[in-house]
Amino acid sequence: MLGALVCSLVLLLAYPITEYVDQQQHIDELEQQVAEKQQAVDDLTAQQKQLEDPAYVEQQARSRLKYVMPGDTVYIVVDEGADDPQAPAAGQSGDAADSESWYDTLAESVEAADGG
Question: What is the pTM (predicted TM-score) of this model?
């Protein structure tokens, strides 16, 4: 009789216990997602603060876009092994190097797409 009582209690408590464990796992997963999202927000906030700094923006423009300030002296380092620094890069034909600049080509394509 006592064994049947213990078995029935185990069966009655099995489902709520498994539900509790499943919910705890789900809560842990959601807390992990919240922590990851908070880290992403913190990273974006730090990036926003950097972009508000004029010195950082100037440094990025100089390094990434190769911008220079008026009055700066610009030096272009040419590879000693190259015969002609104005020669087209590998994979380009000589005609492509002698043709118009890229922005002229872009302007022409925009005009052609516009129909005029």
Answer: 0.47
